[in-house]
Design goal:
It is a single chain. The protein has helices at residues 53-65, 120-126, 130-147, 163-172, 189-200, 258-267, 283-295, 321-324, 341-350, 370-382, 403-415, 447-452, 464-470, and strands at 9-20, 25-30, 39-40, 42-45, 73-83, 90-99, 114-118, 155-158, 177-180, 204-206, 228-232, 246-249, 273-278, 299-301, 332-336, 354-358, 363-365, 389-395, 419-425, 440-443, 461-462. It is 28% helix and 23% strand. The strands form 4 sheets. Strands 1, 2, 3, 4, 5, 6 and 7 form a 7-stranded mixed β-sheet that branches. Strands 8-12-11-9-10 form a 5-stranded parallel β-sheet, sandwiched between helices. Helix 6 crosses helix 7. It has 4 domains: 9-119, Alpha-Beta Complex (Nucleoside Triphosphate Pyrophosphohydrolase); 156-249, 3-Layer(aba) Sandwich (Rossmann fold); 258-368, Diphthamide synthesis DPH1/DPH2 domain 2 (Rossmann fold); 374-470, 3-Layer(aba) Sandwich (Rossmann fold), CATH 3.40.50.11860.
């Protein structure tokens, strides 16, 4: 929401944060593509027939969700003035918390096309407006005596490097900030560090290694004394606990013209039933692009993934469950972003044709040759069936540690007459495996290490599903992608 141009209030509005107490979760609602496709709470204008603000809220709840008998309705003492659409002066929004029964399910009106009940941390990530996230913080604070301390606030999300990020950092008054950037921004890292330092007055230390994902954030021993980590280019993974309070700067970019991109898709002869997947940088393009596809006669679908994903349509290198959720409704996938990393993972996870559309270059790549990748992986698996000594790799990173999986694989290997030892690393490096007496390895850390970097390692490197294929516990077909949850 925009800041108000004046202090005179022309109209009152209300919004309701629907929550369940046990477990503490919130209902969030997605507007349809024509209204931005953003996630919001229930909200609406106060009408002359409404006796007061709470009466207006109860009416909106009935109209938008079918909720007739809410539980306690609690003012959050949170009012936000904003510039009304169409230049109609300054409106004011008043926030309420509304408890609902865990068994209740909303009946959606035309205001929203999807509703989900999520944890407070996921709600804080998905809700579009900054004041929405602040209201969730207030709700958590109100409920803390009943529910105990709540971890909301350890993670914050920003679209770009700018005043909002700087103000949040100044509020925390950190003695030292750790800054981590993706490989593509390494050349600019010192300029970015200087920009943050000048804006906040706090020392900024650059993490020496680039960030390859939200699971690959700076560890306390990498930047001793850092009180906050700033991570560029990634969205948080809601179901992992990070070692430091972490501010994710997603580096959002609107991309090209949705109408021009649709013309490129049409000229490319893509199927009409398309699943839309995007990198986090281009998620803001998804809703307007989906809208233009509909106008052009396509049948686009956007899926919502599991608890590891923050947003609908989002892709992670280890998780494409959002795309998988719509697999039966699409004939192909269209990825909005750059490079082949996500299209390859998407093709392996879904077994559908995958096209990549670069919104910045306005170029469409041919579909991924999934069959060729699978054949290479199957040949690698077949070549390890006689391997007797296995090294099982475990990462100590917060978002990659699968020790339980490693122990299970070790048991299975020994049960089948193989030798297997577990090796732990922070970041796995091919040089650390040189000279070891293993015939092959199974990697329980990032699944893309085995798939994308296999040629860098001195011995064959398999994923856990591939390892079970090598043991004969799974067939080679259908090929199974190693998905993190």
């Amino acid at each position: 929401m925009t800041e108000p141009a004046s202090s005179a209030i022309a109209r009152e509005c209300v919004e309701g944060y629907l929550y369940t107490a046990q477990p503490f979760e919130l209902w969030i609602f997605r507007r349809p593509p024509a209204r931005g496709g953003i996630w919001v709470p229930v909200s609406g204008k106060v009408e002359p027939s409404d006796a007061d603000l709470e009466a207006a809220l109860r009416r909106e709840l009935r109209e938008e969700t079918g909720l007739e008998q809410p539980g306690p309705v609690t003012p959050l003492d949170w009012q936000v003035p904003f510039d009304a659409p169409g230049g109609e002066g300054t409106w004011r929004l008043t926030a309420f918390a509304v408890e609902v029964d865990p068994a209740w399910r909303p009946a959606l009106s035309a205001e929203h096309d999807l509703a989900e009940r999520v944890s407070p941390s996921v709600a804080s990530v998905r809700l579009h407006y900054t004041d929405n996230r602040e209201a969730v913080q207030r709700l958590a604070a109100r409920l803390e005596p009943r529910l105990g301390p709540n971890p909301i606030g350890a993670v914050r999300v920003f679209a770009q490097i700018g005043p909002e990020l700087f103000e949040a950092l100044r509020e925390h008054r950190p003695k030292r900030i750790a800054l981590q950037v993706p490989a593509g921004l390494v050349r600019n890292a010192h300029d970015l560090a200087e920009e943050i330092r000048e804006a906040t007055g706090a020392p900024v230390f650059l993490a020496g290694r680039p960030c390859f994902g939200a699971c690959d954030v700076p560890m306390p021993d990498e930047v001793p004394g850092a009180e906050i980590a700033v991570v560029l280019g990634h969205a948080p993974i809601p179901n992992i606990v990070l070692p430091l309070p972490t501010f994710f700067v997603e580096m959002r970019h609107p991309g090209g013209s949705p109408s021009r991109l649709v013309e490129i898709v049409r000229a490319g002869g893509l199927p009409m039933r398309l699943g839309i997947v995007a990198s986090v940088q281009h998620l803001d393009l998804v809703a307007p692009f989906e809208h233009e596809l509909l106008r052009a006669g396509f049948s686009p679908k956007v899926g919502t993934g599991d608890r590891r994903l923050s947003y609908p349509a989002q892709a992670l290198g280890c998780n494409y469950t959002g795309a998988e959720s719509i697999a039966e409704d699409v004939d192909a996938y269209l990825f909005l972003g750059t490079g082949q990393f996500h299209p390859i993972g998407l093709a392996l996870a879904t077994n559908r044709p995958v096209y990549a559309l670069d919104p910045l270059q306005e170029s469409l790549a041919p579909p991924i040759d999934r069959a060729a990748i699978v054949r290479r992986r199957q040949l690698l698996v077949a070549g390890t069936r006689d391997a007797r000594r296995w090294g099982i790799l475990v990462s100590t990173f917060a978002g990659q540690n699968r020790t339980a999986t490693a122990l299970s694989l070790q048991f299975r290997a020994r049960r089948s007459g193989r030798e297997a030892e577990i090796l732990t690393f922070s970041r796995i490096d091919p040089r650390d495996l040189e000279g070891r007496a293993f015939d092959a390895y199974v990697n329980t850390a990032c699944p893309r290490i085995a798939i994308d970097d296999s040629d860098l390692y001195p011995r064959p490197m398999l994923t856990p599903p591939e390892f079970l294929m090598a043991l004969g516990e799974l067939p080679l077909e259908p090929y199974r992608f190693d998905t993190y949850h």
